[in-house]
Every structure is written in C-alpha cells, then in structure tokens.
Fold this sequence. Notes:
Blueprint: H1 2-30, H2 33-45, E1 53-55, E2 58-60, E3 65-68, H3 70-77, E4 90-93, E5 106-107, E6 116-123, E7 138-141, H4 148-154, E8 159-161, H5 170-183, E9 190-193, H6 198-206, E10 210-213, H7 220-226, E11 232-235, H8 241-250, E12 254-255, H9 258-261
Helix pairs in contact: 2-3
Amino acid sequence: MKEIIKKISLLVLICFSFFYTDKVINYINQNSELMKQIINASEEYKVKEVNGYIEDDTIIPGIRGKEINVRRSFNNMKKYNTFIEEYLVYNNIMPTIRLEDNKDKYIIKGNNNKKEVSILLIVDSNNINKLEGINNITLFMHHNILTIDNLNKLKNNEIYTYGNNGTYSKSILINDNTLINNISNNRSKYCLLREKNIENLNECKNLDMYTILSIKGSNYNSIKDNLSNGKIIVLDNINNLNNIINYINSKGYRIVSLDRLLRE
C-alpha cells in the first residue's frame, strides 16, 4: 500500500512540476518584448473575413480572413529574439456564409474584392482540335467528346463536364466526373447552366457539386462593356479569344481558373 501511495505521490509531483514549469514559461514569454510586439501587431495584421452574398437563389462567394497565431509566431521568432514579419503564422477565419453550405444556389460571379476574372470555354467537336497552347482557360466539355484521349490532350487546363449540351443527369455526371477525376489535374465539382433549371441544380447538388449560372452570352463587345471584378465569362467558341485576353490584361485584371476565382 505504501508503495502505491509513493508512486501516486510521485506522479502528482511530476504533473505539478510540468504544470508549474509551463506556467513559468508562459509568464516569461508573455512578458518578453518579442511577445509584446507580436501581440501589438495582431490587430494591424488581422484581415476580416467577407461573407458570401445571397440574393434569392443566387450566391457570390466571400473571402476568408486571417489572424496571427501568437504562440506559433513567437516560437518561430524566439531563437532570433526579434520581430520578423515573414515568420508570422496565421489562422484562417472562414466566412459564416459559404459556398459549401449553399450548393442549392446558383453561383453568378466571383467575389467583388478580387481583380480577377475567369474565362470558361464550352468545348465541342467544332473547337476541340483548336485548343493547343490555350492556358488559364477553364474548359466545360460536352459529354459526347469527353473521352480518355481528349482529356489527356487537354489536362493541363481545368476541365469540367458540360453534360448533354448543358443538361445534367445523374448517370452523365457520374460517368463524366469519374473520367475527369481520374485523368485531369482537377476534381470535377462545377456544373454550368445557361438558364435556371431546378432539376439540373439538384442533380449537381446531390453529387456535391456547385452550379455556375451564366445566362448572357459573352462576345468581345459585351465583355468590354461589362468587365468587372469576379466576372465569369462564358465563350461558345474561340473567335476573338486572343483579343479578349489582351483586352482583359490591358485593364489590369488577372485571368484565373474558375476554382481559383471562387476560392474563399
């Protein structure tokens, strides 16, 4: 019995020792000049999150915020004992209104705070052999040409299915998503509609996909008149593609993949 009591007492002493040591270290750290600098910088470097914007059955994605992880930042800098901005560690602050929770809504554009746009090209049998050298363009491929060979040719681009001429069924989505996920460099998670269709929206949602809605057609003149932050530009052909790209770049916009444009 005495031996058991001794062991328990020793264990309690060890635990108390660890607890006390940790408290002392925390106290020293909290009162160090470096820790005070990091704490003081926390508000300056904090970026507030932006919630997604919902209107009726449409949504525009928000943007995550960030805040300094004080303890990890301190541990990064303490061996230098000086404040180094590049060694700051951040925690992400996700929006409370997110795309992830609103797959029953149509996505109509990217966030207004980013000077980025995406070009989506609908790929069919007429233009599939004209896409060599095209980069940073997101491709939505018709189901009837979504084959292993064609995917291998185009997999340097971000690729999604356009279903049966913009109409989606469960069987088409499962077939096309399996091919895309196995061959391309991205996961197939977006559908593209040119008009609202609740059945198609639900088919995509049920397979954990997001639905892009772009009702208006895009040509060179309409793009010039309506270019704005977060714009999703849908092209049915590659006519004037180089002119469109040059114009967008000349206005200071960055052309990015659809997934990057919508990333929160």
